[in-house]
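Researcher: Quick sanity check before group meeting.
Model: Go ahead. Protein one:
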Amino acid sequence: MAKKKQHYSGIGGQAVLEGVMMRNRKMYAVAVRRPDKKIEVEVDEYHGVLEKTILPRIPFIRGIFVFLDSLILGTRSLNYSSTFYEDEDSEPSKLDRALDRVSRGNGEKVMQTVSMIIGFLIAIVLFVLVPYFAAEWMATYVRNDSVLALFEGLIRLMVFLAYLIGISMMKDIRRLYQYHGAEHKCINCIESGKPLTVKNVRECRRFHRRCGTSFLFIVVIVSILLFFFIRVDSRVLRLAIRIILVPVIAGISYEIIYFAGHSGSIAAKILSAPGLGLQRITTKEPDDGMIEVGIASVEAVYNWRRYLREEFGWTDEEIDEELHKE
């Protein structure tokens, strides 16, 4: 019999276009439901930024590298999944051909890097510059620095929520959020000590404490607190600090989400609650086909049978019996 407890598995992932990416240590898999309804799975290795140095293992610094790795691997996985839905008859654009010539055949990698940089700059504009200049405008009417700092933080939080709600109304994003739900359900199924079957996954929650949505929410809250206490008179310096401290905020936020995701304490549950609530926006209930894609991604890089044997006391016979119930 399986023991009734929750246990950390070590796997994580994200939703991609019509699919799911799962990562286990250095290995990752991207499973995609192709237009012909078959599931395509690609397995590869990913070596993190400066992984051979001690920096990615130092608390409050490691979060910066985890964030960068997530951006790089996430962009790579999304670009891979999108290739299944490109027009096969379309010719490479002049820009594509020019990039290939300049980069000696690495045009795709260049575009991935450019896309990531553009995405980062858009995030800086939305979540740093817009709240900052809104607070600067309010300073004409309000002279209290504490009130202005809280107003800037409120604007940042409102922009974040408006962004999540706004993109959730797009049809393609709603499907992406369904695959996000499938990813969470698969991980919750394993970490709850259940064999990875469509039926068991379907019955699991679509919310997870280690989700990127929760991380982003904590980033917003940490930035509000940090900028409330760090104040300077110079407008230029105030703006510079908000950009320079982005890595610091990411590092602090990672430690908070790490604690919340690995601890069963009341404090961890309290810290996790707002992020779990936001996942009602960023995750949707998947259909069985999406769950099958999530399972395929997990099984490509993770031995969940061994995990259930070692952590929950299952036997191979019990697991096979559960699988035959499908």
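Researcher: Fine. The other one?
Model: Protein two, sequence then structure:
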Amino acid sequence: MNFVDKNVWITGASSGIGEALTYRFNSLGARVIISSRRESELQRVKNACKYPQKVEIVVLDLEKYHDIDNIVSPYLQQFGNIDILINNGGASQRALVVDEDLNVVERMINVNFMGAVALTKAILPSMIAQKSGHIVCMSSLAGKFGIPLRSGYAAAKHALHGFFETLRAENYDNGIRVLMVCPGYIRTNVAINALTADGSPQQTNDPGQEAGLDPDVLAQKIIKGIEKEKLEITAGGGETNGIWVSRFFPRLFAKIIRNKK
């Protein structure tokens, strides 16, 4: 697939997987719109790109999803269309269900699910009009099965599958393709920034995260997934085997997962 001058919108682009995807698409000649809450970090990423003149910064807070349509509208007019939307922005958590504040669950749903839905709905009509488009959703292994300490996060990631797999079925004949990405441990700051029971950040890393897959490796897998029009990809280490164990040996998996705290 030729990505030259394709318009690619990436959320969560100020670090981690989103940052790696920005560099990859930019090096392939795409026009990249990068979003997150932190404008200074987006500027850093833009400056580090091979073709910074082909990068547009749009500050976006996914939690404030009611504002997204108005923010997106002028950029759709400016660019005419978005060829690839990558819903990568999100947040994680580390808290027991019994301890977590309800607003932590709400934030997980709003940031990880409602923000992606609102941005997609803002862009989808233009994709339908042009009869083409690719939507990538960053799910997780937690989108395939529940994991202790991640209840709200897992709920939001499960919801992504229900919504975007439906969107995929509805819009296949409109030339729109949907790729669900289900990574395991990726070497990012997601655990450091994860919300604890009262909503404050954990501020420490998880051993699995520290030893996780390089974000650039995942970025390459995602681009190949887009090129091959895959429906879903997984990436990580041995933890990805949990998908198959949970499917074929559910009782064994239930015993294993309850000890993963």
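Researcher: One line on it for the slide.
Model: The chain has nine helices and seven strands.
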